[in-house]
Structures are given as C-alpha cells and as structure tokens.
C-alpha cells in the first residue's frame, strides 16, 4: 500500500505528441499486477496521437476541456467526464480549450 | 467509445458501508474487458469496510481528505493523491474531514 501525490511524479514527454506529458503514477514498478494509472497533461492546441492499439483506455477528465475523436465524429468533454475507448478503436484526445487539459488514463499491463 | 459525466450515473449505496455511495462509471456492461472504474463518495465520519480481498485497488482522490489504514498504520491523503492497495492487503478508506471525500477506484474484472 502506498499514497503519493501525482505532482510528485516527474512528467515525461509523451511519445509522438508535442505539448503532452505523462506521469505513470501507478505502474508495474509499484507492483501493480493488472493495469497502470497515468496522468496526462495536454497544452492548449495540443493533442495525443490519432492512433489505434489492441488495448482499451479508461479515462477521467480532471480539468480543462476538449474532445475525443474517432474516424467519424468528435465528442466534447470536460471536468468529471469519463471516456471509454475500446480496443482497436482509433482515437485522439484534443485540447481545444484555453487551459491545460488534465486527465487520468488507465491501461492494462 | 463513449463520453459521460460521472454525475449522470446514479449513486448506489456501497455494501456494508453506511454513508458511502458508489457509481460504476465504466464496467463490463459498457464492454470494458479488463477493469472497471468506480467513483466513491464518503460522508464525513464514514468509511469503507476494513477488509481484504484478492484484487488490488488503484485510487485517485478527487476531493476531500481522509486516510487509508492497514493493520498497523494510517496514511493521510488529500486531493491529487493516488493510493495503491495490493491484493490481500487489509485496508479501509476513512473520511475524517468536514467535506465529502470523493475518489476514483479502479478494480480488475
């Protein structure tokens, strides 16, 4: 068991996503057996890659606003929204607001 | 893919925990294949059961304050803290503050 603040974890640049950082706040390094928790920050105008992969995302928007898009649509989100992306769904998280977009994103290990 | 606000999900009373509600915001009903996301609210003075089980918790404190205890110790937490409870670790989340304690808790399916 441990408690730590997400702000204590150094942010790392996210791959292929300028203006995006990730903190791995709970991961296999901590002994997590099944899934990892990350905290992302996306600068205004920045976005995660528009990509697909065989695992799901379970996200929770902590602050800021933006939208998630797939091949066909864009769905806006803000504080308190949860976002589920199924395995193999193409997706991108975009910050189209004026403030930093901060969200939790959980992925399987 | 879907987006919904956690407030749209009706809170249910948590088992064996007066003053505690749970919202299953992403679960197997939504097609989640590996893990579920829940949002808990704990009234001031209330607590989750002091118990153990074979699965882990990955939690993120959204608002309020309190502590998590095991057999030997109590560790305080507040907004922005992450809490990891390993499988089989005895644990209890306690709200010893004056405001509602709200946290995300992810568990395997």
Explained architecture:
The structure is a homodimer of 109-residue chains. With 109 residues, chain A is mostly beta strands. Chain A contains no helices and 10 strands. The first copy, chain A, has a 6-stranded antiparallel sheet with strand order 2-3-4-10-5-8, with no helix packed on it. A 3-stranded antiparallel sheet of chain A has the order 7-6-9, with no helix packed on it. Chain A is globular, with a radius of gyration of 13 Å. The relative contact order of chain A is 0.27. Chains A and B meet through strand 1, strand 5, strand 7, strand 8 and strand 10 of A and strand 1, strand 5, strand 7, strand 8 and strand 10 of B.
Concise overview:
With 109 residues, chain A is mainly β. Chain A is built from no helices and 10 strands.
Uncertain segments of chain A are none
Of all protein chain pairs, which has the greatest interface, and how many residues does each chain bring to it? A-B, 38 and 38 residues
Helix content of chain A: under 10%
Please give the number of β-strands of chain A.
10
Give the assembly state of these chains: homodimer
Kindly state the mean pLDDT of chain A as a whole number? 97
Question: Helical region count of chain A?
Answer: 0
Sheet-strand content of chain A, in percent, reads over 45%
Largest sheet geometry of chain A: 6 strands, antiparallel
Distance between the termini of chain A: 19 Å
Structural class of chain A: mainly beta
Strand arrangement in the largest pleated sheet of chain A: 2-3-4-10-5-8
The arrangement of helices and strands of chain A along the chain is EEEEEEEEEE
Radius of gyration of chain A: 13 Å
Overall 3D form of chain A:
globular
């Amino acid at each position: 068991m441990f408690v730590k603040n997400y702000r204590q974890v150094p942010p790392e640049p996210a791959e292929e996503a300028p203006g995006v950082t990730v903190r791995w706040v709970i991961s296999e390094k901590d002994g997590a057996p099944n899934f990892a928790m990350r905290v992302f920050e996306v600068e205004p105008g920045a976005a995660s890659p528009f990509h697909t992969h065989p695992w799901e995302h379970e996200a929770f928007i902590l602050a800021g606003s933006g939208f998630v898009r797939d091949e066909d649509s864009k769905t806006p989100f803000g504080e308190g929204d949860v976002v589920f992306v199924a395995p193999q769904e193409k997706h991108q998280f975009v910050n189209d607001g004026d403030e930093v977009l901060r969200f939790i994103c959980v992925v399987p290990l």
